[in-house]
Amino acid sequence: MTTKKACPICEAGIQEIDYKNTELLKNYTTKFNKIVPRYYSGTCLKHQKELANAIKQARYMALMPYVLDLR
């Protein structure tokens, strides 16, 4: 039997995921700025959806890059 991992955002007691909090959002993106899937990040479904929407909104507002330029 395996035990379920607890959501790190639920454990931290974060009430709202804001698109302006880029330090939190960077923890849930890869080095190529792709959104990390749920099974890697360990977040619950509710917070994964909020994270994805916040990351997309931060990209749209130019607070985070869409892709990493490795040139």
UniProtKB/TrEMBL annotation:
- Coiled-coil stretches: none
Q: Which GO terms describe its cellular component?
A: cytosolic small ribosomal subunit
SUPFAM superfamilies, per database record: Ribosomal protein S18
User: GO MF annotations for this entry?
Assistant: small ribosomal subunit rRNA binding; structural constituent of ribosome
Q: Which Gene3D superfamilies match?
A: Ribosomal protein S18
Q: Does the keyword rRNA-binding apply?
A: yes
- In the UniProt record, does the keyword RNA-binding occur? yes
GO biological process terms held by the UniProt record: translation
Q: Which InterPro entries match?
A: Ribosomal_bS18, Ribosomal_bS18_sf
| Keyword terms | Ribonucleoprotein, Ribosomal protein, RNA-binding, rRNA-binding
Q: What does this chain do?
A: Binds as a heterodimer with protein bS6 to the central domain of the 16S rRNA, where it helps stabilize the platform of the 30S subunit.
Q: Which family does it belong to?
A: Belongs to the bacterial ribosomal protein bS18 family.
What NCBIfam families does the entry give?
S18
Q: How does it assemble?
A: Part of the 30S ribosomal subunit. Forms a tight heterodimer with protein bS6.
* UniProt cross-references to HAMAP family, sorted A to Z: Ribosomal_bS18
The molecule here is called Small ribosomal subunit protein bS18
Organism, by scientific name, is uncultured bacterium
